[in-house]
From TrEMBL:
InterPro entries: DUF7042, DUF7043. Residues 162-257 form the DUF7042 domain. Transmembrane segments: none annotated. It comes from the Eukaryota. This is Uncharacterized protein LOC111135921 isoform X1. Residues 1-37 form the signal peptide. Residues 36-145 form the DUF7043 domain. Residues 606-640 are annotated as: Disordered.
Length: 664
């Protein structure tokens, strides 16, 4: 009995002390993990940059992000929000605490949940819960989150990159601003064009002062797209676009329905991107409603709108009614493409393999549209010819004039370039045709296109001092892949091809390259165009340098010209691939390449013309997605609270044991 009492006394003395030690060890785990030093906002919220929302006249606020806090000035009141907990880094969800600064009225900390939705590198939308005195994860429940209509935008605007606008086409407009019809009694419709050519952005042409939304607008606004995203629900199918130039605050455009056939859009001049007609503060929305009508112009001599057919139109609107007012004749200035140009020509456009299809009166470029021949002009370059083309858009964009300059460099290859575009219409049309082909509009270098109908080879004319006389050459590219190359002019009398083998491959393939054209450069180098019958690919090669500086470079057909090769020599341009001639090891290639095959013994074929793929449909731009920070613990991570739960359980058990001991 005495032993039992002694044990009870010892347990009563030491067990509470042991439990106290464990309590002290567990307390840090029990504290909310909001104090972690690695709680920082997303990297795309660039530090020490000004982020603004609203305009000088509408809910203007400024934000600076600096790792774990946001410095905010709104309505002349400055305060700070600090990152307290990363709830879901992938979704951009954060618990923040608001700290008043500089004499703010609220002296208590409040908590809220913020979600950052990345729309582009320079545009971010914020969803936020209402502030609460209590810190709880339920703040981030979806019903508690409110989407702020005004995105925050990085400044200065001029430093922000443009994105491709989500729609292309041209439309005549009917504008209603805050429920009031614009433009008065004028029948000249304002006009909107977007991405008629890639990189154009959006042009808003009000035509007359009465159609302008406010005095801040010019008669013609050229705007860049900074971001776009979609909002699709059962009720709505919206696409939002943030538009800006360097002269005015950004505005937001809401497009409704099918982007390829728009009927209606809304402009919010104060920068809001409104899903519903009333924002979260139940404030009325300033908006301009646009009714959109597409009109396709397919000829040089055309009217700009339907009213031109009215008898009285020419008295006031001759400028816009050139066809009805007989300022031009539809039948004039029609020309045809020379016979030698007709057919399919393979080339590269914007670094993508493409085809130019030329018929009697039209030239077609996939992704660009149709070009109609409307006039001929003289060229100042020897053996070069110029044609004035009318670029026709099926999406409602007004046509544009461009000059097509070309010269045949061989039976198989065509050097060509398109000049700068000239906007339609300009009168007299004959002068417009002439001005389109002025030298200053054709300053860019030629590209190369290859006839896809048949194969005619020519001498490669590779440099005599490049080393082919001594046999095969050993090459190494930028990725340390090894190749052998052989040119047979000096050994077998075959000058119209060279062979090349990737000797690192498990089963080396002897690839034959047939020369279709060749031209010597001023520096002694040579560039050639080849085709490989195994896959009917087309390549541009440059054989440059001499001695230990010998190398072979590959370019796209789009950049295959003397200017590019000269720029490469001085290190100003890049290339698709480069091969250096290696002196060691000796005799690396002697047994790799086969003896040349007589071209007459090899069957040539004409491949079927491939149909270019349809352009991809518009998709929803991704909302912010970045890998989870391995150093952070998400409040939704099932493993993140394991130590907390263990300590809590132990504390409850300790209390129960202590209580039992005292009862005993």
């Amino acid at each position: 009995m005495l032993k039992i009492q002694t044990k009870k006394i010892i347990m009563r003395q030491y067990l509470p002390r042991c439990c106290s030690v464990f309590v002290l060890l567990c307390l840090p785990s029990l504290s909310f993990q909001i104090s972690k030093a690695n709680c920082t906002f997303p990297d795309f919220l660039e530090r020490d940059k000004l982020w603004r929302s609203g305009t000088e006249h509408h809910d203007f606020s400024r934000m600076y992000f600096n790792g774990d806090y946001i410095d905010i000035v709104k309505n002349d009141v400055r305060f700070e929000k600090r990152c307290k907990e990363i709830i879901d880094r992938e979704k951009g969800l954060y618990i923040v605490v608001e700290l008043p600064k500089h004499g703010g009225f609220n002296t208590r900390n409040t908590y809220s949940c913020m979600q950052f939705l990345k729309r582009s590198d320079s545009v971010v939308q914020i969803k936020e819960s209402n502030p609460s005195d209590i810190l709880t994860l339920s703040l981030c429940n979806e019903p508690n989150m409110v989407l702020r209509n005004r995105p925050i935008i990085k400044f200065p605007i001029k430093d922000n990159p443009s994105v491709k606008c989500p729609f292309s086409g041209g439309y005549n407009l009917k504008i209603t601003y805050n429920s009031q019809s614009m433009c008065g009694t004028s029948i000249i419709p304002p006009r909107l064009e977007s991405e008629c050519e890639e990189g154009d952005g959006v042009t808003l042409d009000f035509r007359i002062s009465e159609c302008k939304l406010d005095n801040d607008h010019s008669l013609q606004e050229k705007l860049r797209c900074l971001a776009s995203w979609t909002d699709k629900t059962l009720e709505n199918n919206y696409t939002f676009v943030v538009l800006a130039n360097n002269q005015r605050s950004p505005l937001c455009m809401r497009l409704e329905g099918n982007l390829s056939d728009l009927k209606r859009a809304t402009i919010f001049p104060d920068g809001r991107c409104v899903v519903n007609e009333w924002d979260s503060y139940s404030q009325p929305i300033e908006r301009a409603s646009l009714d959109m009508e597409k009109m396709v112009v397919s000829n040089l001599c055309e009217d700009e709108f339907d009213y031109c057919s009215q008898e009285q139109a020419c008295a006031k609107f001759e400028k816009y009614c050139s066809k009805s007012c007989r300022k031009c004749q539809p039948e004039t200035n029609v020309c045809s493409f020379p016979e030698e140009l007709k057919g399919v020509w393979h080339t590269d456009l914007k670094s993508v393999p493409s085809m130019i299809n030329i018929s009697t009166y039209n030239l077609h470029l996939p992704g660009e549209g149709n070009f109609k021949c409307v006039g001929k002009a003289n060229s100042t370059e020897e053996n070069a010819y110029r044609l004035s083309l009318l670029h026709i858009f099926e999406n409602g964009c007004y046509p544009r004039m461009t000059c097509f300059e070309y010269k045949k460099s061989s039976k198989m290859t065509l050097q060509y370039k398109f000049g700068e575009r000239v906007e339609w219409p300009k009168f007299p049309l004959e002068k417009m045709i002439h001005d389109t082909c002025q030298d200053r509009k054709l300053e860019k270098p030629f590209s190369v296109a290859v006839n896809g109908a048949q194969v005619y080879t020519t001498s490669c004319q590779l440099p005599s001092d490049f080393g082919f006389k001594s046999g095969h050459l050993y090459l190494r590219d930028a990725t340390s892949q090894d190749y052998c190359i052989a040119y047979y002019e000096y050994s077998f009398g075959r000058s119209d091809k060279f062979n090349m083998v990737d000797i690192n491959a498990t089963s080396p393939v002897n690839r034959e390259h047939l020369c279709l054209s060749s031209k010597k450069l001023e520096n002694g180098g040579v560039f050639v165009i080849t085709t490989s019958l195994s896959d009917r690919s087309y390549r541009c090669w440059g054989f440059l340098g001499s001695g230990s500086m010998r190398r072979i470079v590959q370019l796209s057909l789009e950049n295959c010209n003397e200017n590019t090769f000269s720029s490469i020599e001085y290190g100003y341009r890049s290339y698709l691939n480069s091969f250096s001639v290696m002196e060691e090891p000796k005799n690396m290639c002697t047994l790799v390449l086969d003896i040349a095959v007589n071209p007459e013994d090899r069957p040539f074929f004409t491949p079927p013309v491939s149909v270019p793929p349809s352009p991809p449909r518009a998709t929803t731009p991704p909302v912010y997605r970045t890998p989870a920070d391995p150093g952070s613990i998400s409040a939704e991570d099932p493993d993140s609270g394991s130590s907390t739960y263990a300590c809590s359980a132990f504390l409850l058990l300790s209390v129960f044991i202590i209580h039992s001991m005292y009862v005993l």
